[in-house]
Task: inverse folding
């Protein structure tokens, strides 16, 4: 049997740009992949946190991500997200490659956001960004958005002032006017990115301007959310999959439990956006919210693209 291709974090992260990963996601959807039929995530409580199992199959490939979420790791100088991704040949289930799971997640998540933003933000003036968070996903989303749009300003909001300042300095090094700020800065934002481990809303949704876009990626738990009921009630809401969102997205499930919205409040999915089934107005009269929980088909699509970007294929 052919030796298993092993890609460490650096090779996994460096194989594709975020734009390239977003293209892979769009390609999978255009090829007919149905996110509504994707298997759900399995979570197992363990002493250090939670162990996640995410399998998927599509076309000529299958794969599974085994990820750990260890909340205590950052205090030990270790990453909060750990894991590995095993890519398999679809027809034979022969193992093809083992990728770094944390690096794959760090690439996949902003790629999903970028794919949504391609359709939710129209061309025009540079955007004013408010970015919540100061961890790897916040850095990844900042850099991903810069591949897509010019930024007039980036305002970083985070619990740790030192880490917020470091991310703002990183943005300035990339040529973006940047500073730290507060939750009230969403009032003047064109784009709000939520990349945190928060379990309660980060800002007052009444302050978000009509036409602004909010992307929330930080949680996949029914009792955790980054956005409040006020925003969800007045926003046009887009998700990766209705089934996944109504299973895992606390940002939507909590307002629904409060009676503020119904299950039909979702305007569309990522598949709808890519296929052009949900035409978005150039300047909508309400905010737009894209809520991502992360799905196994996305890991598979990006893993396959990474596999091919290394020069590998199912015959080698």
Result:
């Amino acid at each position: 049997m052919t030796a298993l291709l092993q890609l460490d974090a650096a090779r996994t992260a460096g194989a594709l740009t975020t734009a390239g990963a977003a293209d892979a996601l769009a390609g999978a959807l255009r090829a007919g992949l149905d996110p509504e039929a994707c298997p759900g995530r399995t979570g197992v409580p363990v002493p250090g946190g939670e162990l996640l199992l995410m399998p998927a199959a599509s076309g000529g490939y299958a794969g599974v991500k085994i990820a750990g979420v260890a909340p205590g790791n950052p205090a030990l100088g270790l990453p909060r997200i750990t894991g590995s991704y095993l890519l398999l040949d679809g027809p034979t289930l022969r193992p093809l490659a083992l990728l770094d799971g944390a690096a794959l997640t760090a690439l996949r998540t902003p790629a999903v956001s970028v794919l949504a933003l391609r359709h939710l933000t129209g061309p025009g003036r540079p955007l004013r960004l408010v970015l919540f968070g100061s961890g790897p996903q916040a850095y990844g989303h900042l850099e991903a958005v810069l591949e897509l749009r010019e930024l007039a300003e980036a305002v970083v909001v985070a619990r740790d002032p030192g880490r917020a300042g470091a991310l703002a300095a990183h943005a300035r090094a990339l040529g973006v006017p940047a500073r730290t700020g507060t939750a009230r800065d969403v009032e003047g934002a064109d784009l709000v990115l939520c990349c945190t481990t928060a379990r309660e809303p980060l800002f007052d949704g009444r302050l978000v301007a009509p036409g602004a876009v909010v992307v929330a990626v930080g949680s996949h738990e029914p009792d955790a959310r980054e956005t409040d009921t006020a925003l969800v009630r007045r926003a046009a809401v887009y998700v990766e999959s209705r089934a996944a969102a109504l299973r895992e997205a606390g940002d939507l499930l909590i307002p629904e439990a409060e009676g503020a919205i119904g299950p039909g409040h979702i305007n569309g999915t990522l598949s709808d956006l890519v296929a052009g089934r949900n035409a978005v107005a150039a300047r909508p009269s309400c905010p737009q919210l894209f809520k991502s929980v992360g799905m196994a088909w996305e890991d598979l699509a990006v893993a396959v693209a990474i596999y091919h970007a290394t020069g590998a294929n199912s015959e080698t």
